[in-house]
Amino acid sequence: MASKGNFELLCLENPLLDIQGVGDEKLLEKYGLKANDAILAEEKHLGLYDDLIKNYKAVLIAGGAAQNSARGAQYILPADSTVYIGCIGRDKYGEHLEEICAQAGVKTAYRYDEETPTGRCGVVITGHNRSLCTDLAAANKYQLDHLKQPEVWKLVENAKFLYVGGYHLTVCVPAILALAEEAAAKDKLFILNLSAPFIPQFFKDQLDQVLPYVDILIGNETEAGAYAESHRLFSKDVKEVAKSIVQLPKKNSKKPRTVVFTQGTDPTVSVVAKDSGDFEIKETPVHAIGQELINDTNGAGDAFAGGFLAGIVRGKPLETAIDMGQWLARLSIQQLGPSYPFPKQTYG
Ligand code: 26A
Predict the structure, then answer these.
(1) Which region, left, alpha or beta, applies to residue 220 given φ > 0 means left and ψ of -120 to 50 means alpha?
(2) Catalytic residues (predicted)?
(3) Could you identify which of 3, 53, 131, 195 might form a hypothetical disulfide with 124, taking C-beta atoms 3.0 to 4.6 angstroms apart as the criterion?
(4) Model pLDDT, residue 288
(5) Is the peptide bond before 343 cis (omega within 30 degrees of 0)?
(6) How far is the CA of 185 from the centre of ligand 1 (A)?
(7) Is the pLDDT of residue 3 over 50?
(8) What mean pLDDT do residues 70-89 have?
C-alpha cells in the first residue's frame, strides 16, 4: 500500500558533510588509512580535511550514512514520508545539510549545538574503494532530551518505521533505546544498520543492548565477519552469522527478526526466523553495472538501505524491498558521492 505522506519513516544518526576527493596511496599512508574502511578521526587525522580541499580538489557533499539513506528512501516514497534527526552546529556546513535535505524532501528535526561545528567526513577515493574518516564534532552532541521534546517526540509517535544507523551507537544509546522501546511497545518496525566493522568490533556492548529490539538488521559481509569475531561465533559465513542473529532474544515477540547482508556484487543474503525455529534463507542478485559507469562507491550501502527502507514502508515483500535497495545503489554509484540522479527515475 502506498504511503499517505505522513512521515511514516523516522531516521536517527549523525549528520555529516562529506569532504570527498580522489586520493592516492601516498595520502592513505600519510594518515594511516585503509583503502576501504570507515573510522573515527583521531588527533593525527585532523589535517586530512584541509589536505583534501587544498591538494586533492575535494568537493563538499551531504553525507552521514542514515541521512543518505533517508534521502534515498524519500527519493522513492511519496512526498512527506521521511523525517531525519541528528545534531549539527550553527554554521555553513550545517546550513548546507539543511538545504540538501529540504531539496530531497526530507523533513529534518536537528538538534543544534551552539558550541561545536557540524561534523565532517573525509572521503578518500582510490579506484572503487573509499576510505571514510569522521570527525563527528556536533554530531556527537546528540542528546535524549532533544528526542523527548514534545514536538520531536510527536514525530516519533507518528512514525511507523524507525531506522537507526549503527554509527549512532558511538553517540547516544539512550536515544536509540527510546526509539527501540517505542517500536516494541507499539508493534512498530525497528530497523538497525551495522554501519561499519568497527561497530560490532568496538561497540559490542552498545550493539548487544539494542539488538533485542531489532526487527530488521542490515549489514554487509565485512560487518558480518566483524560481528562473528567479536561474538566468537564458530563461523564467519554470512548465512551462519545471520542465523545466529535472528535467533537472539527478542522484545517484541509478535514479529520475527530478519537479517539482510549485502555482499558487494554477490547476491544479498536474507534470513528470517520462522516460528518453527527454522529459517527462511534467500539470495537476491544485485543489478549488474559496467565498471565504466561507476563514479564512486561512497554511499552505495546507504543507498541500498534507502531503497530497501522505501520497499518496507510500502509493504513490499522482503525480496522486492532488497531489489529496490539494489536498484537505488546502482543509481547512486553512478553519481558523485552519496547522491541520487535527477530527474528522478522510477523503480520497476
Ligand atoms: C560515527 N561515524 C564514523 C559515522 C560515519 C558516517 N555517518 C555517520 N557516522 N562515518 C562515515 N559516515 C558516512 O557514511 C557515508 C558513506 O556510507 C559518510 O558521511 C558517508 O556519506
Answers:
(1) beta
(2) 302
(3) 131
(4) 85
(5) yes
(6) 30
(7) no
(8) 98
Average pLDDT, the chain: 96
Q: Ligand 1 pocket, 18 CB below 6 A?
A: yes
- DSSP states along 9-58: EEEES--EEEEEEE--HHHHHHTT--SSEEEE--GGGTTHHHHHHHHS--
Asked about 302 being catalytic, the answer comes back as yes
Q: How far lies 225's CA from each of 31, 32, 169, 222, 255, in Å? A: 25, 22, 18, 5, 26
Closest to 224 measured CA to CA, from 254, 264, 185, 178: 264
pLDDT band at 271 (very low <50, low <70, confident <90, very high): very high
Residue nearest to atom 16 of ligand 1 (CA): 299
User: Phi and psi for 103 in degrees, rounded to 5?
Assistant: -60, -35
pLDDT of residue 148 exceeding 50, the answer is: yes
**Which pLDDT value is given to residue 4?**
57
Q: Cell numbers of 298, please? A: 561512497
Compute the C-alpha angle 321/323/326, nearest 5°.
115
The partner residues of 17 in beta bridges, in order of sequence, read 62, 120
